[in-house]
Specification:
Helix content is 33%, strand content 22%. The protein is α+β, with helices and mostly antiparallel strands and 130 residues long. It is elongated. It has a 5-stranded mixed β-sheet. It contains 4 helices and 5 strands; from the N terminus they run E-E-E-E-H-H-E-H-H. It has helices at 35-38, 42-54, 72-90, 94-100, and strands spanning 6-12, 15-23, 28-30, 33-34, 61-68. The protein has a single domain (6-100), classed as Ribosomal Protein S5, domain 2 (2-Layer Sandwich).
């Protein structure tokens, strides 16, 4: 598997991560920027690297990703799912470990739409009997 690039997609809320994974030195590039520059928060950097850390592959793959939509937390979790899916394509035996850690599940929670006649999705205007 010399220079084969794997392409996967990860989604979370309204964020979409298109992930390109190939063998390398462990560089993670997001929208042309370095991981530490794109996600200054240590927690979000950790979230992105979780699938690689669990499998002890932190320095063996280069990740290029295009992130679109959503907020920073949703983008980080979408990228985590995309990386996990790419690793399973490389070696299907990784799937059990990644699933046990919860990285293979697409979080289906989305924002509920606002309804007419209400200020928000479920909140109601104050009721007045008289």
């Amino acid at each position: 598997m010399a220079t084969k690039v794997l392409n996967t997609i990860g989604r979370r809320k309204s964020a979409i991560a298109r992930v390109y994974l190939n063998e390398g030195k462990g560089n993670i590039t997001i929208n042309g920027r370095d991981l530490k520059e794109y996600f200054p928060s240590e927690i979000l950097q950790y979230v992105v690297k979780q699938p690689l850390e669990v499998l002890n592959l932190i320095g063996s793959f280069d990740v290029k990703a295009n992130l679109d939509g959503g907020g920073i937390k949703g983008q980080a979790e979408a990228l985590r799912l995309g990386i996990a899916r790419a690793l399973v394509e490389i070696n299907p035996e990784y799937k059990t470990t990644l699933r046990a850690n919860g990285f293979m599940t697409r979080d289906p929670r989305e924002v509920e739409r606002k309804k007419p006649g209400q200020p928000k999705a479920r909140k109601r205007f104050q009721f007045s009997k008289r």
